[in-house]
TrEMBL record:
This is Squalene synthase. Signal peptide: none annotated. Catalyzes the condensation of 2 farnesyl pyrophosphate (FPP) moieties to form squalene. The lineage of its organism: Eukaryota, Fungi, Dikarya, Ascomycota, Saccharomycotina. Belongs to the phytoene/squalene synthase family. It is found in: Membrane. Its main location: membrane. It comes from Zygosaccharomyces bailii (strain CLIB 213 / ATCC 58445 / CBS 680 / BCRC 21525 / NBRC 1098 / NCYC 1416 / NRRL Y-2227). Its EC number is 2.5.1.21. Its cofactor is Mg(2+). InterPro entries: Isoprenoid_synthase_dom_sf (IPR008949), Squ/phyt_synthse (IPR002060), Squal_synth-like (IPR006449), Squalene/phytoene_synthase_CS (IPR019845), Trans_IPPS_euk-type (IPR044844), Trans_IPPS_HH (IPR033904). It catalyses: 2 (2E,6E)-farnesyl diphosphate + NADH + H(+) = squalene + 2 diphosphate + NAD(+); 2 (2E,6E)-farnesyl diphosphate + NADPH + H(+) = squalene + 2 diphosphate + NADP(+). GO terms for molecular function: D-glucose transmembrane transporter activity; squalene synthase [NAD(P)H] activity. Pathway: Terpene metabolism; lanosterol biosynthesis; lanosterol from farnesyl diphosphate: step 1/3.
Length: 439
């Protein structure tokens, strides 16, 4: 829940929260007359993730159910993998055979601990299977393929003694781990988007794009969750990076090593920023508006979080997060490609403004931010001297194609602003009238 005092201290965010709550309308309203099984699936979605549920339920009807079921299947898989009460041999067996269960109609699993909050997804898996078999065959194939890859990837990590004892070693290992937990999700979603006709055909032929979408999100979460993960006896920061700043990973959080810990955070942020340009290319390749918003919201949340953790020693002792009001503002402002780019530009400039000169990666971070800024200039070549034609690069062409859709959304945004101003004026008028009447 949004804290009222927090919003009052940030009036722009208060305005965004009010617009999001009372004025903005979803592109596709909820459907009526859902089957009992489909109704239950959406109830399970709400129970497992309210934030994902909100954006999934606003998707185009062509993709809504497929994405919802994809999420629930992977949530079920993750619930098996996360539950430390399940005997490892059984866990590995379930994970490796999970994709095969999608060919059945009645399979369920009740081997989770009673305290496992998402165990109901596995206990009630038959209702998910019922709706899964009603999807288009090509959507089923995508979900099954990704489930197979992810289940086996999870099983491999459970059996990897070196990983379990020493954690993530190299940056390559870091990327590979993020691939299994997030890159594969991006792969599946991209296949669904392309098969639905909601993205440019080349979106499905360049795996680096969807890989970067997933890795950018996952790496941001891994940096943010340092303290929380250590409490749980795990960590995913790669030794190749953190060993430059401490002998043991836990030492980074000690008061005497705080500055080195901050430098380590900043190098991890640098690593995450390497994916930003691919994120821009991916978003500029989405053609259907609700799908664009579904893809864009997590990315703008990630860059805002990345800016928050940058050069922030609190990360070493506690979990930081962006304000709820900021979240509302980001959701509203990320509905166009230009809005997303503006958000990214704001936060990378914020990172640059707080980069200390003595940071070991000072030059590298500045270079990476300059590359991002240069790519943005290539996308929007609107400040060229008179008579100079824009360079017809892939980035520019994709951006120009996306601008057509952006203009439609900008008209909606202007209408929302008008309605908010009218409502605000009316409320102020009523308050003034009451005040003068009472006085």
């Amino acid at each position: 829940m949004v804290k009222p005092l927090e919003l009052l201290l940030h009036p722009v965010e208060l305005k965004a929260a009010l617009k999001l709550k009372y004025i903005r309308q979803p592109l596709f309203p909820p459907r009526d007359n859902l089957s009992p099984e489909l109704t239950r699936c959406y109830q399970l979605l709400n129970a497992t993730s309210r934030s994902f549920a909100a954006v999934i339920k606003e998707l185009h009807p062509e993709l809504r159910d497929a994405v919802m079921l994809f999420y629930l299947v992977l949530r079920a898989l993750d619930t098996v993998e996360d539950d430390m009460s399940i005997e490892p041999q059984l866990k590995v067996s379930v994970l490796r055979s999970f994709a095969e269960k999608l060919d059945t109609t009645e399979w369920s699993f009740d081997g989770n601990a009673p305290t496992e909050k998402d165990r109901k997804v596995l206990v009630e898996f038959p209702c998910i299977l019922h709706e899964y078999h009603l999807l288009r065959p090509e959507y089923q194939e995508v979900i099954k393929e990704i489930t197979h890859k992810m289940g086996n990837g999870m099983a491999d990590y459970i059996l990897d003694e070196k990983f379990n004892l020493q954690g993530v070693q190299t940056v390559h290992d870091y990327d590979l781990y993020c691939h299994y937990v997030a890159g594969l999700v991006g792969d599946g979603l991209t296949q669904l988007i392309v098969k639905a006709g909601f993205g440019t055909p080349d979106l499905g032929t360049n795996p680096q794009l969807h890989e970067s979408m997933g890795l950018f999100l996952q790496k941001t979460n891994i940096i943010r969750d340092y303290a929380e993960d250590l409490k749980d006896g795990r960590s995913f920061w790669p030794r190749e990076i953190w060993s430059k700043y401490a002998t043991e990973l836990v030492d980074l959080g000690k008061p005497a090593n705080r500055q080195q810990g901050v430098y380590c955070i900043n190098e991890l942020v640098l690593n995450a920023l390497s994916h930003v340009i691919d994120v821009f290319t991916y978003l500029s390749s989405i053609r259907e508006q609700s799908t664009f918003q579904f893809c864009a919201i997590p990315q703008v949340m990630a860059i805002a979080t990345l800016a928050l953790v940058f050069n922030n020693e609190t990360v070493l002792t506690d979990r930081v997060k962006i304000r709820k009001g900021t979240t509302c503002e980001l959701i509203l402002d990320s509905r166009t490609l230009q809005g997303c780019i503006s958000i990214f530009r704001y936060y990378v400039r914020d990172i640059k403004s707080r980069l200390p000169v003595e940071d070991p990666n000072y030059l590298k971070i500045n270079i990476q931010i300059a590359k991002i800024e240069q790519h943005i200039e290539e996308m929007y070549q609107d400040k060229l001297p008179e008579g100079v034609k824009p360079r017809e690069t892939v980035a520019y062409t994709k951006t120009q194609q996306r601008i057509v859709q952006d203009k439609k959304v900008q008209a909606i945004e202007q209408d929302e602003e008008f309605k908010f101003n009218m409502a605000f004026t009316l409320v102020l008028t009523l308050i003034s009238a009451v005040y003068f009447y009472v006085k």
